[in-house]
Amino acid sequence: MRRALAGEDLRPLSQALLQRADADPHEAGALLDAAILCEFQGRAALAANLRREALRLCRHYRVQGCAQTPALRVLALKAAGPLLANTPIECLLADGDIALEVYYVGEDLPDPETLPEHDLLFVAIGESDAHQPLLAHWAERLRAWPRPVINDPRQIIASARDRLWQRLQGLPGVLAPPVWRLGRAQLADLAAGQGREGYGFPLLIRPIDSHAGQGLTRIDRAEDLAALLASHPEPTYFVSPFIDYRSPDGWFRKFRLVWIGGQPLPVHLAISERWMIHYLNAGMDGSAVKRAEEADFFKGFESGFAQRHAKTLAALHAALGLDYVGIDGAELPDGRLLLFEADPAMVVHDMDPPAIYPYKLAPMRRLFAAFREFLSGVSKHRPPGLGQGV
């Protein structure tokens, strides 16, 4: 991932991995690595085929770089799917004395009678419609698991966009806009001027189970909605009102933070002239002004943002009910937090170029250290099974 984010051409490495797998039909690790590289290259169909073949051969993988004599053995339970389908826990445990292993599960895979030996089980399956049955199944299996479990699958299910906003209504200091699940027929009625009670333009619309803004569109007029339906085949969409969250200076700011065992920690602050912000498209690389503001965000997080929103953040974490979970949001001019998304599978990493982002090194080290300390504490003090969770 680090090399992909640095813009390196990974095609030679992909080819070498495929040749390795071709030479040894049992080389599942090379196939899985090649699948990941193909994802970075936008070759989704090939990635899916390689991943399927890898998991047919082997579902248990030891992550490289783990200690030979680990202080703790963590097993991450992942769904058979693309990178964004699961929590990228590998990025949080790249170094140190914790051994990380991954076991893949899925409805198309035989249900394992047992799992590899571990001290702690981390449910890394991300929320999606496709994962709901899988999460429900493992929630039942893990109820009396013989080892402590991090992230209750039932709470992952409850983090779905169209469920979460209802749980957060009335939470002080939070604006969680409604998210409606609408089919093509309902959207066609809206485009035709029918059934608009409660739905006012502008609207945000995205296909179900999309990630990272893929397919996210702002709809300002009925004509725009009709055009979108004509060009997109998806049967069901999430629809929500567009909230203009720009700051008084006209720029849009999106923060990401994660809770690790109840402690909120900053991940990034993206600043853009456009409302649809992703860190990679916000122009942070080319703006010293934006990076200086983000550096101040990190530096003053505890005494500034976290203190300013202490009660709100505590209430949000309690409502989410997950040990490890991230949110994307914005500070509104009236002081409330606008919630875009809550997700235990958000990407958290330290792979931005240090020459451009030197101020990120220390906060990310603190975050990773907090994660390792949290895992160690859970393994020592939490009872086995799902227990009480957070």
From TrEMBL:
Q: Which SUPFAM superfamilies match?
A: Glutathione synthetase ATP-binding domain-like
Asked if Ligase is a keyword of the record, the answer is yes
Where on the tree of life does the source sit, at the highest rank? Bacteria
Residue span(s) of domain ATP-grasp: 166-376
UniProt keyword Nucleotide-binding, yes or no:
yes
Tell me the keywords, alphabetical order. Answer: ATP-binding, Ligase, Nucleotide-binding
Q: Name one GO molecular function term.
A: ligase activity
The UniProt entry, under InterPro entries, shows: ATP-grasp
| Record's protein name | RimK family alpha-L-glutamate ligase
